[in-house]
């Protein structure tokens, strides 16, 4: 099976600067590193670059290779194949006018430039599980006359979040001909290699790059990069170019060819797609946009070091699961791996795609970070200690385990983790950090204290928590009930006494009726500092979609109707009903404006599949529910190509905002599409039997 030929554009998009620079490609390497840019090949974000690598794997990411600006030379004539936008407002050069087409070949961006009788293709790929990128070119048709490229290689060594200060980056530039190394401050070197080209050392700062997407976000909008080398590359019909790597020892022995690297990446994408379609029958005949999501799903799982475990207790055997930890990057380009996001995304990224070993490794890795019954919310970019400020991360951990066991039937893994899961429940019953504790009166989970954001609605500005939700949040308690039912199920699977979990679940189930509003739908928070919160938010939908719902069928239908009436859009659910006085329909401006609006109206795409599954649960109409996902197809051709944005404006036309590639957005849509396709097939089979 070949990767889908789904993301493809012609001159109408590629040669239009506004259209071409708003469409971005992103690619991960499985180590926390990534590459990203625009169709126009101009920079619009501080995060754009050809190689961004982690200083503290998998985080602390540094931009080390920014651009490869190529100019085509033919018998004294020359044409730029790149575009740069400058702080003055100038667009020079405008190489995008020569782009005949752009497409994604699996995960790899491919350009086709046409100038007279010359047709040049360019491709970029990251080597899986390596800090290595290849930028390659070739002629689409053989030419009788010699043609070559001149390519300027622009480098840096700053945080991908940061700004460039020229005086802080004064690297040593050594080598020549086929290999050049750039070393700064005794750190890891960046190595350039070419097989058929010639490399020449340079030291020229290119300043005043304009970054319009940063300006939109109220952040510094200028950047500079050092041109550290120039490459002369003869063009033929085989792929050739430059390989950049931080691989130690590569100055001596690292000599892959561009063609080999591109073939390996293409084989990697193809093998992943074939494995998924063989494992998940529903994906065999899935439309191209769903196959493109399968490719996108591969960019989020990463390798993560886990706390060292010397030996299994009472044995000389090392803990095999501690040898290779895995996690999930929450989104590109700026997110790290978050506990909550990882557990929500895990089923769609790993179980739907048949990657059971990865699912097990991720669950085992986070087991090593559990503390006082809690999962870490996030890992700091500087490699510091994980932060434990989430009330739902641990509860999603139970659902992730339930999904894994249901798919894999791995009772050996369940038996190993069961004592830790019991301990986590115990911590929640008797109380852990930030006031998280089960109320003995109604069985509901209370969470929160002043100045701390604990739910997924976690925006905070200084000491101001924008959506504090202190008290008993509705989705936290839906997750709490679900976790207790999961533990009862686990206990029965392992032939252990489930009574304690059944008793707790029964009490919570009874207490959950307090969330029901007379007018329909659910309170967002109970027993808060100002009483019960009647705000219409999407959190209530999880009380319908989770594996074990605490609601009656009638109450589930009321929730779906309430959410549909106030929150449903083409791309997801609004985070607050437009009728609320605090509603913000647009996510724009500086940090203060954006963060204060983050959960006060913008649409969250990970909640669209939650709504679709909830609608199916109350109507039984899988075709209708699956149709809710259809607008995502068009979105895959808009912002982050082949992937799904984090959020959208609450008001039409619902412009994409936030991170252009978000893990739980991709994962939840993929998981829901497969579940609903399976339900559609069952319904069709049942109808056929009745007709017979």
Could you describe the 3D structure shown?
By secondary structure, this protein is of the alpha+beta class. Helix content is 32%, strand content 25%. The protein is built from 19 helices and 34 strands. The chain has a 9-stranded antiparallel sheet with strand order 1-9-10-11-12-19-16-15-14. Helix 6 (288-297) crosses helix 19 (663-691). Mean pLDDT is 94; it is low at 310-322.
Give the SSE layout.
Elements: E1 8-9, H1 11-14, H2 17-22, E2 24-28, E3 34-38, E4 49-56, E5 59-74, E6 77-80, E7 83-85, E8 91-94, E9 99-105, E10 108-115, E11 118-126, E12 132-139, E13 148-159, E14 172-176, E15 179-183, E16 190-193, E17 198-210, H3 212-216, E18 222-234, E19 240-245, H4 250-253, H5 258-279, H6 288-297, E20 301-303, E21 326-328, E22 331-332, H7 339-351, H8 356-367, H9 393-408, H10 411-430, E23 437-438, E24 445-446, E25 460-461, E26 464-465, E27 472-473, H11 474-493, H12 499-512, E28 525-528, E29 531-533, H13 542-545, H14 553-566, E30 573-574, H15 591-597, E31 603-604, H16 607-619, H17 622-627, H18 631-635, E32 647-648, E33 656-657, E34 661-662, H19 663-691
Antiparallel strand pairs: 1-9, 2-3, 3-4, 4-5, 5-6, 5-13, 7-8, 9-10, 10-11, 11-12, 12-19, 13-18, 14-15, 15-16, 16-19, 17-18, 20-21, 22-34, 23-24, 25-26, 27-28, 28-29, 30-31, 31-32, 32-33
């Amino acid at each position: 099976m070949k990767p889908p030929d789904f993301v493809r554009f012609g001159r109408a998009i590629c040669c239009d600067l506004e259209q071409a620079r708003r469409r971005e490609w992103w690619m991960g390497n499985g180590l926390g590193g990534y590459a990203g840019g625009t169709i126009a090949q101009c920079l619009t974000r501080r995060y754009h670059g050809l190689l961004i690598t982690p200083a503290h794997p998998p985080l602390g990411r540094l931009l080390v290779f920014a651009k490869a600006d190529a100019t085509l030379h033919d018998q004294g004539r020359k044409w730029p194949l790149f575009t740069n936008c400058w702080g003055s407002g100038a667009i020079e050069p405008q190489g995008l006018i020569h782009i005949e087409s752009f497409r994604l070949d699996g995960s790899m961006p491919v350009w086709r430039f046409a100038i007279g009788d010359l047709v040049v293709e360019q491709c970029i790929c990251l080597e899986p599980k390596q800090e290595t990128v290849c930028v390659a070119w070739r002629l689409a048709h053989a030419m009788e006359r010699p043609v070559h490229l001149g390519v300027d290689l622009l480098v840096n060594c700053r945080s991908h979040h940061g700004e460039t200060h020229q005086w802080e980056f004064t690297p040593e530039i050594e080598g020549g001909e086929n290999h050049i190394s750039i070393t700064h401050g005794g750190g890891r070197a960046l190595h350039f290699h070419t097989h058929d080209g010639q490399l020449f050392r340079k030291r020229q700062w290119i300043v005043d790059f304009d970054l319009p997407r940063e300006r939109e976000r109220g952040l510094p909008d200028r950047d500079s990069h050092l041109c550290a080398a120039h490459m002369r590359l003869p063009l033929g019909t085989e792929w050739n170019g430059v390989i950049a790597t931080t691989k130690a020892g590569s100055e001596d022995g690292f000599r892959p060819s561009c063609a080999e690297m591109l073939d390996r990446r293409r084989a990697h994408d193809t093998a992943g797609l074939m494995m998924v379609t063989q494992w998940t029958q529903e994906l065999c005949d899935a439309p191209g946009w769903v196959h493109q999501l399968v490719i996108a799903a591969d960019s989020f799982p990463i390798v993560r070091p886990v706390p060292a475990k010397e030996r299994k207790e009472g044995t000389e055997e090392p803990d095999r699961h501690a040898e290779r930890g895995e996690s999930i990057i929450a989104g590109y380009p700026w997110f790290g791996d978050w506990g909550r996001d990882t557990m929500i995304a895990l089923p769609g990224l790993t179980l739907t795609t048949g990657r059971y070993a990865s699912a097990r490794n991720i669950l085992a890795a986070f087991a090593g970070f559990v503390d006082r019954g809690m999962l870490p919310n996030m890992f700091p970019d500087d490699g510091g200690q994980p932060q434990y400020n989430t009330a739902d991360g641990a509860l999603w951990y139970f659902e992730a385990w339930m999904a894994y066991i249901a798919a894999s039937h791995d009772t050996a893994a369940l038996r190993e983790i069961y004592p830790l899961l019991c301990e986590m429940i115990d911590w929640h019953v008797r109380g852990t950090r930030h006031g998280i504790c089960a109320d003995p009166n109604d069985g509901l989970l209370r969470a929160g204290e002043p100045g701390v954001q604990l739910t997924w609605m976690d925006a905070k500005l200084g000491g101001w928590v924008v959506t504090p939700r202190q008290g008993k949040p509705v989705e936290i308690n839906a997750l709490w009930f679900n976790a207790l039912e999961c533990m009862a199920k686990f206990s029965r699977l392992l032939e252990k006494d489930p009574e304690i979990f059944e008793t707790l679940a029964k009490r919570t189930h009874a207490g959950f009726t307090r969330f029901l509003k007379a007018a329909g739908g659910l309170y967002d928070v109970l027993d808060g500092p100002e009483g019960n919160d009647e705000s219409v938010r999407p959190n209530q939908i999880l009380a319908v979609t989770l594996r074990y719902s605490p609601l009656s069928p009638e109450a589930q239908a009321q929730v779906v109707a309430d959410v549909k009436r106030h929150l449903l859009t083409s791309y997801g659910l609004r985070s607050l009903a437009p009728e609320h006085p605090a509603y913000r329909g647009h996510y724009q401006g500086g940090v203060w404006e954006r963060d204060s609006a983050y959960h006060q109206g913008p649409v969250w795409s990970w909640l669209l599949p939650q709504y679709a599954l909830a609608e199916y649960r109350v109507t039984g109409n899988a075709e209708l529910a699956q149709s809710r996902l259809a607008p995502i197809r068009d979105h895959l051709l808009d912002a982050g190509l082949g992937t799904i944005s984090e959020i959208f404006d609450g008001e039409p036309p619902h412009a994409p905002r936030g991170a252009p590639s978000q893990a739980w957005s991709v994962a939840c849509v993929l998981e829901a599409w497969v579940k609903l396709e399976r339900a559609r097939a069952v319904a069709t089979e049942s109808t056929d039997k009745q007709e017979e």
